[in-house]
Backbone:
C-alpha cells in the first residue's frame, strides 16, 4: 500500500514536484533479429548489431529497463517479477554454445510489485479508474 | 505477476549488445493475447509515467517479420518490405499527423500497404504500439534511429525522446 500511495500521489496529486523531476526517459523500439544470430557474427545482422552497439549514448541514464518482447504473450498484461531471471532459450537448432548465453542483469526489486499493485487497484476500483487511469479500461474490458 | 518467467531471446540478445555490463535491473511486461493494436497502445499509455522515473522502456520485435521471406533470402522485385517500411516511418516520424490520426493509422496498421506480407502474425510489430503509447498522447514524432537491412529486408528502429 505504501508504494501505491507514493506512486499515485507523486504523479497526480503533486504536479509541481512531478514537473521538477529530471528529463524523461526515452523509449526505443528495436529489432532483435533472428534467434541468437546477432551474437554469432552473422553477416545478415551486421548493420543491426552496429546500430545496437552504438545506441547507448541516446538512452540516458536509466535506473531500470522495462522491456516488452515479441516472444511473450499472456491473457492479461503480465509483469515479470523474478529477482534473478533465468534465460529462456526460445529458439531451436542453433549451436550448443547458444544455449549457454547468459545476461546476468537482476530483476527490479520494486517496479514489478508497484505496477502489479497499482493495476490490481485499478481493476478493483472502477471509479478511481475512471478518474485517474482511463487507459486501463481498455486493458480489462 | 510471474515470478518464474525468464528473459527470452528478445530480451537478452539486444541487451547484451546495448548494455553488455548487465548492471541495470531489467523486467518484462508481456504482450496481450489477441494482439489487439488499440489495447497495446493503451497498455503503453498506462506505462507513460515510468518515463519520469528513469525507467527506460524498450519494445523488442522487428518491423519486418515474415520468417519465410527472411529465411529464403528471395528478392521480391516489388520490395514489399520497403513499401511497408515507408508507411511505418511516415506514420511514426512525420510531423503531419494529429495524435488521433497517428493513433488511427497504427490501430489500422493491417490496412497499410503490404502489412500482412510483412507481418503474417503481428507479435513482432506490437511492441512498437506499446512504445508509441508509452511516449504519451500528443508525443512528438519518433526519431528514426535505424533504417537498414536485416537478412536482406528493410527494417527500422524508432526512438521517442
Residues:
Amino acid at each position: 500500500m505504501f508504494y501505491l500511495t507514493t506512486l499515485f500521489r507523486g504523479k497526480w496529486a503533486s504536479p509541481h514536484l512531478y514537473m521538477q523531476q529530471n528529463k524523461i526517459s526515452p523509449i526505443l523500439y528495436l529489432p532483435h533479429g533472428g534467434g541468437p544470430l546477432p551474437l554469432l557474427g552473422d553477416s545478415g545482422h551486421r548493420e543491426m548489431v552496429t546500430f545496437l552497439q552504438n545506441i547507448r549514448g541516446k538512452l540516458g541514464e536509466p535506473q531500470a529497463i522495462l522491456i516488452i518482447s515479441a516472444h511473450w504473450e499472456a491473457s492479461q498484461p503480465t509483469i515479470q517479477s523474478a529477482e534473478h531471471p533465468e534465460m529462456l532459450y526460445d529458439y531451436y537448432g542453433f549451436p550448443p554454445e547458444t544455449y549457454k548465453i547468459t545476461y546476468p542483469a537482476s530483476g527490479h526489486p520494486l517496479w514489478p510489485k508497484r505496477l502489479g499493485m497499482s493495476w490490481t487497484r485499478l481493476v478493483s476500483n472502477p471509479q478511481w479508474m475512471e478518474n485517474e487511469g482511463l487507459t486501463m479500461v481498455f486493458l480489462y474490458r | 505477476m510471474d515470478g518464474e518467467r525468464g528473459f527470452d531471446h528478445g530480451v537478452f540478445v539486444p541487451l547484451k549488445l546495448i548494455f553488455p555490463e548487465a548492471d541495470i535491473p531489467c523486467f518484462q511486461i508481456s504482450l496481450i493475447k489477441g494482439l489487439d493494436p488499440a489495447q497495446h497502445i493503451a497498455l503503453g499509455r498506462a506505462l507513460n509515467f515510468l518515463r519520469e522515473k528513469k525507467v527506460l522502456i524498450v519494445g523488442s520485435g522487428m518491423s519486418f517479420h515474415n520468417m519465410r521471406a527472411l529465411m529464403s533470402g528471395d528478392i521480391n522485385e516489388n520490395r514489399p518490405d520497403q513499401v511497408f517500411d515507408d508507411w511505418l516511418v511516415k506514420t511514426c516520424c512525420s510531423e503531419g499527423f494529429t495524435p488521433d490520426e497517428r493513433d488511427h493509422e497504427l490501430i489500422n496498421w493491417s490496412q497499410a500497404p503490404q502489412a500482412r506480407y510483412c507481418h503474417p502474425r503481428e507479435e513482432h510489430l506490437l511492441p512498437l504500439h506499446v512504445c508509441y503509447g508509452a511516449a504519451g498522447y500528443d508525443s512528438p514524432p519518433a526519431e528514426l534511429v535505424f533504417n537498414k537491412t536485416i537478412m536482406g529486408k528493410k527494417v527500422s528502429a524508432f526512438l521517442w525522446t
In short: Residues 1-21, 128-141 of chain A have pLDDT under 50 and may be disordered.
